[in-house]
Amino acid sequence: MPPLQELLAASVLFLAGGTLLLLVPFALHRSYLLLLSRRSPPRLATRWDRSWPRVTVQLPIYNEPAVVERLIDAACSLDYPRERLDIQVLDDSTDETVDLAARRIREWRRQGVDIRHIRRRDRSGYKAGALAHGLGQARGEFLLILDADFLPPPDLLYQLLPPFLDPEIGMVQARWDHLNESESLLTRAQAYLLDGHFFFEHYGRFAGGRFFNFNGTAGMWRRRCLEDAGGWQSDTLTEDLDLSYRAQMRGWRFAYLGEVGVPAELPSGVGPLEVQQRRWAQGGIQTARKLLPRLLAGPYPLRVKTEAVFHLCGHLAHPLTLVLGVLILPSAVARETLGLERLLGLDLLVFAAATLPFLVFYGAAGRRRGRPWRSVLPTLPVVLATGIGLTASVSGAVLRGLRVGSAADPFLRTPKKGEVRSGSGGGAGVGSGLRVGSRVGHAVLKLALSAWMLGSLVVAVRMGFFGSIPFIVLFGSGWLMLGIKGIVVSSVGGEGTPGEGAPTGKAGWVPSSRTSSPGGARKAAASVADPEAGEVA
After folding, report:
1. 92 tagged catalytic
2. Residue 49 a catalytic site member
């Protein structure tokens, strides 16, 4: 064998082996969190035994014409003493959202609700800047934050306040539920991914005494904790994760109420989903760069430091998974080239080690939500394929997060259902992150990767690398599924256009409240199916 060929084969095996060595701990960590979530969590107060405190509800919005009225109606319909509640609409919008919000606010103010329309001269600091600006004018001892696509149940404040009877509790987070899970395979897969996060990752970290994070919405802060931690900062794209770690490093404790659900809209298409996932990935890595060195050097328990490494660096799994997929066939060829054919059977063992923890994790999440096995089992491959498909676009965001100076990148909000994707305003511009060129580029990359996997499948069958085939099929189907959907959507004018993102009328979807009267959101929130009683549509 020529020395160069031998060196090349050895290099491929070394790279593939190193990638697997880094990836397997992330997979096993999911199983660890699943076990950790079986512990009994710290006991929390469940009844508020004193006079109700003043609460400020903050609604940060930016170009949200499809959902802003529904959001305001839901916030104003919260069941809480009006004299102790003030609501801030933190509106950085540049489109029709401003007028829609203003009209709704005037109507609610006429009914005696203390709601204010707060506008800034510029969007400096993005969401973090808006929240910080609102904090300076807030009158509440506690602050509930709700993103534009969330629909809080009327009794949410009463459910979130009792844990704050413990003066060490600085933040209380509720679970996310799903308004439009049944809309498509993509939304169904997202529901499983999020359920795994809330049922097992959040719950496991809380029960195990690890740090966990405020999710940017559907959570309440003690004002003193927020200010003691340094307030909102905009030097990462995940201001919520950043503030959460700073607060817990200051000694504050967080509480997670997994039994309290707040329904929200899942991104309906590939473009909005990737905008969201890229922001979370880049911001997570930025937060790791910012805080992890200080945390690891600090006086924190080893279990907290270890979990923080997995938590803050978890998005590194995206580029590692991408590399692993590309190397599936080359590594098999390299083993044969070096005379290591007897190791080819290890592919199935590696496949099992890398995928079974995820199958168990998300399968358990599906069952925890109350879905029947006949629904869970066929959905699990779609969940894994969706996660793999996202690596094509999210890996670049991870690399940007590792780059010094990436904190200057803009905050691209997640587009919501029913938005217009063309013309001026927030639909298709920088604010939404759905630039056509970028969207098509990501779709083409995924199709190129799926073509590579198709070629790999043909070669694997011809050369008898049967142990590699399950890997190849899973990776190829993930990239192909998201790639085709991305191309199709781009060709018809973007996600959210009629036929792609319009409300479907299926059970569980709460339509826009533009034609409803104040108080309608209260009824809509109450009509969402109980997630513990069965599948949420």
Report:
1. yes
2. no
User: At which of 266, 296, 331 does a domain end?
Assistant: 266
Q: What pLDDT score was predicted for residue 460?
A: 93
CA distance 461 to 459: 5
89 in the same domain as 8: no
Q: Report percent pLDDT > 70 for the chain.
A: 83
Q: How far apart are the first and last CA of the chain?
A: 59
CA–CA dist 325, 303 (Å, integer): 32
Cα distance between residue 364 and residue 226, in whole Å: 34
The total of other beta-carbon atoms located within 10 Å of residue 484's CB is: 15
Active-site pick, 240, 242, 347, 409? 240
Q: Distance from CA of residue 441 to its chain's centroid?
A: 23
Which structural domain range is residue 29 located in?
3-35+316-415+433-491
CB burial of 368-397 (b: ≥16 within 10 Å; e: otherwise) equals bbebeeeebeebbbbbbbbbbbbbbbbbbb
* 512 or 150, which is more confident: 150
Catalytic residue among 92, 177, 195, 347: 92
290-335 tens-digit pLDDT: 999 999 999 999 999 999 999 999 999 999 999 999 999 999 898 8
Count of domains in the chain?
Answer: 2
pLDDT tens sequence across 101-124: 999 999 999 999 999 999 999 999
